Structures are given as structure tokens and as C-alpha cells.
Amino acid sequence: RSLSSHSAVENVYSTDVEFIRASNAENIKCLRFLDEEGKILDKERCPDVPMETLKQWYEEMRQISILDNILYNGQRQGRISFYMTSFGEEATHIGSAAVIKKGTDILYGQYREVGVLLHLGFTVREAIDQCYGNKDGHGKGRQMPVHYGCKRLNVHTISSPLGTQLPQASGASYAQKILNKKDVATFCYFGDGSASEGDAHPAFNFAATLECPVVFFCRNNGFAISTPTSEQYRGDGIASRAIGYGMDAIRVDGNDIFAVYKACKEARKIAVEESKPVLVEAMTYRVSHHSTSDDSSAYRTFDEDMLTRDGPITRLKKYLEQAGEWSDDQEKALEKRIKKHILKEFGASEKVLLPSIDSLFDDVYAEIPKHLIEQKKMMRDHIAKYPEEYPADGREA
Questions:
Q1: Cβ-contact 237, 191 below 8 angstroms
Q2: I want to staple 46 with a disulfide (CB 3.0 to 4.6 A). Which of 33, 127, 236, 286 is the partner?
């Protein structure tokens, strides 16, 4: 046997000196059912989603945008410290969340997936409490805003460092496989910027070689903060990388909720039935600034009228209107109802006390060790010595 026969690759030998030229490769096709005018392109292949479900999806997408608007303005008013919106990416939230098996599947997010959590049962109040960092919030003020997590929904807490969730998702998925858990998929959300991080390679490679039932969902929204995708890679997006790792992949129009839903439904099926990873690349656009700490006008020009012409919400609204299922009166009533609910929860959350200083030492050890007890005493002594520097107003005793 030749040494080359021990490779995982089946070699096809040739005497041709032939390079695979990237410039000659065909681009991966992008799945689309719903065009910019709200018309179905292929009724035979488009998923058959009941009208009432579509209207529910539309309402959830509007809830995301209204919540984003209120919390973004809340940060500008100094009421919360930080925020990140999902304007223009709402279909990626709801279309993917609709196929997740609630309470069974495992989720790893980044920071533009609040709609996924809300669809699965995370409440508006829980989201706002986390952003306020109050005593009722999931993170008890120890995490930045929008770094959500929810144990009952199997949503692992979001981390600030880009890409860390990718290898974690592969590991969690492998653990489910070892435990022989059936019909359990791990969904891992990340952006095009995270795909440029070093964590992406081991995540994809481990998932492929260990045959883990994980769905990698990439929101390719055009920018990694200020770096456009044109400066991030020269290949055909993110989906093209999957082939090199031996993963199945599909690219979808991220503004088309039908396409996102169909692709994710099939991706989950492949992952759990064939025990293998799948990559879904959703092509969308980050309409907002990267965060409240960013001013995107410094590195791009933006057409403010773009969303009125094409966006995931606009596109689905056109479809509903043309089907005679939506009107201006319904739109006004919906917006009023959602705003009223969110503002009520916003006001209630604002009145909740911040966590006790002592809570800094909780939730790590079952029994607090001696060195932390000593540190806690040192902290208390320090605060007692300089009380004017550490006002207790608005904080739990």
C-alpha cells in the first residue's frame, strides 16, 4: 500500500498539472421563495405555512423591531448602559426559531438573536430585566446588556468575545451524541465576523469529524463592526467553507422568512437523522449601527429608505397585504398594542432594585470558600470606609 492510501481522501490520480482556480468556481446558489415585491416565486416548492402562523410570525418580527427601538432609545437616554439592535435581520430570528424543538434542542447565540428567545418563550420582561442588570435579571448585573441566557429553554448565556460559542456548540452536540440523546439538535448562531475568528476552524472540524448533530447558522449581514465582508474574505462567503470540512451547507436569502424556515427545517432534519453538522448562511444586511457604541456613518453610507423598499418585515407585510390578510388599521393596532406592552414592562423593570453587592460572590460555589469570605469582608470594610463613593440607593440590601 502506498502512503497516500492512508489518507481520508480518495485520490483520483492524473498527469494533468491542473490547479483548482477559485476565480472559475461557480457561486453557491441562494435559496429564495419570496421576492422584494412580496410575491412567491415557486408555489410548488415554497413551504406551506398556514396564514395564521404567518401573521403570528409577522407580529413577532414587529415586536423585535419595536423592542429594539425602545431599548435603543432607552440607552440614549441613559437608562441602560448598552444595546445592540437587529434591524433588518428579523426573519433570521423567527424563521430559524420556528424549527427549534423547544426545551430539547440546545442553543448558543451571539447577540442579535433576541427574537429566537422570544419565539421560544423568553418574555419581554426577562429581556429588559437582563438589559437593566437588576436583581430579577438572568445575569444579576454581571453581564453586559443583550447577553441573554435561559436555562429552561437550553439557551447558554451569550459571551462578549466573538466566536467562543462555536466550539462550545460542537462540544455540547458531541456530548448529546455520547449520551445517545435522540432528536436533539444544537443550534449555533454567529455572524460573518465570528467566522473569521480562530474558534471557527476547530468548531467546524470537530463537528464534522465527530459527526455532531449541530446546525451552524451564520448571519452574513455584510459587516463585522466596521469591517465589510469584502475585506474579510475572498472566497464565496461562509457556506463555501463547509465543503472543505465535509459539512453540508446551504445559502438562503435572509430577508425571506419562507427560505430561512425551509432551510433550517431541512438542516435540522439532516443533523438529527444523519448525525452530522450542517451550515446555513443567511444573506442579510445589518441596518443598524453595530451597537450603541458605534457610529456606522464613519465607514459606510446608508440609504435610509432601503427598508421601505426591501427588508424582512416589509417583504412579509407585502405578501400579507396582497393576500388580503393585512391592512393599515391592523398595522396601527398591532404597533399600539406591542408598544404599550413593552413600555409597561420597561417601566416596571426600571423600578426593580439592583442586585446586592454581596451577590457578587454567589452562584459560583455551592459553599463559598474561605478566600472569598475574606474578600467579601475586605469589600464590606472598604465600602464602610468610603460610603459616599458607593451609594446604596436603588440597590438591594
A1: no
A2: 33
Angstrom distance (rounded) from CA 266 to CA 261: 9
What region, left, alpha or beta, does residue 108 occupy, with left being phi > 0 and alpha being psi -120 to 50 degrees?
Answer: beta
Q: What is the pLDDT of residues 86-144, one digit of tens each?
A: 999 999 999 999 999 999 999 999 999 999 999 999 999 999 999 999 999 999 999 99
Task: Compute how many other C-beta atoms are within 10 angstroms of the C-beta atom of residue 393.
Answer: 6
| Amino acid at residue number 214 | V
CA distance 46 to 258: 7
CB 38 within 8 A of CB 317: yes
Share of the chain above pLDDT 90, in %: 88
Q: Rounded to two decimals, what is the model's pTM?
A: 0.94
Please name the helix (run of DSSP H) or strand (run of DSSP E) that holds residue 273, with its range, or none.
helix 257-274
Nearest CA among 343, 225, 293, 392 for reference residue 81 = 293
So what's the pLDDT on residue 5?
Answer: 55
Model confidence over 27-38: pLDDT tens digits?
A: 999 999 999 999
Q: Are 162 and 200 in contact (CB under 8 A)?
A: no
For residue 195, the SS3 value is helix
> Do 153 and 122 touch, CB atoms closer than 8 A?
yes
DSSP code for 106:
E
